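Proteins fold reproducibly. Take a sample protein:
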Amino acid sequence: MQSVKKRLWMILLALFLPVFFVCPAVAANAAESRLVDQAGLLSDSEEAKLLEKLDEISERQQADLVVVTQKLLHGTSAMENADDFYDRNGYGFGEEKDGILFLISMEERDWYISTSGFGITALTDADINEMSKRFTDDLSAGEYAAAFTKFANLCDDYLTQARKGAEPFPYVGALVLSLGVGFAASLAVTGMMRSRLKTVRRQASADGYVKNGSMKLATEKDLFLYRQVTRMEKPKQPDSEGASISAGGSSTHQSSSGASHGGGGGKF
């Protein structure tokens, strides 16, 4: 009888033991995925296509691009939820945890972009505001796959520009060179023209050009023409939530874990 019980225990152990190893592995893989559609907004084909794009850009840029959808915020703000989700699931490349997370919540139709590490440099507050104009209409219309794809492509562009230190306008170097050449040519031409004016000599005043008694002023007035005003920028103070403005134009704050994040959000 004992041998039968022993065999049953061994069979049960053999059946359940793999579960203890497989379940944590599955959970870890789910947590590390760059697409977490908890609200069920995407079809299977849309998920596969978007995840492939997020993975490709993330690996190439060495900065995680993550998309998260949720039904509820459970009493937290979209900012807090996005920051904590990023930190808790170990996203980010390198010591600075470079990456960008895009979260939307269907509870109050909130969206928030959380940036970390180099993501804070690449996406300034103004950039996030400009990006939102591209995808909020799609979110409002329920075109979630289109909105997330635009987010990924725009992040790719901003990360590329930030790494290259791109100028705001193309061909700036060529433009500066052209202006320099034109200025040098104008100096040469005016120099030649001045050298031909043999009869002209520098005068200390204009008296030599006016005959004595030939000029009489009937009326004299003092006219105020212009004034020069010097303005100094008032130093920015941290807001009530402790956010501060960095040199790159990104507001930053600390998450509940103490990590530094930038970002911005709104409604759709």
About this structure: The two ends are 67 Å apart (CA to CA). Residues 64 and 266 are 22 Å apart (CA to CA).
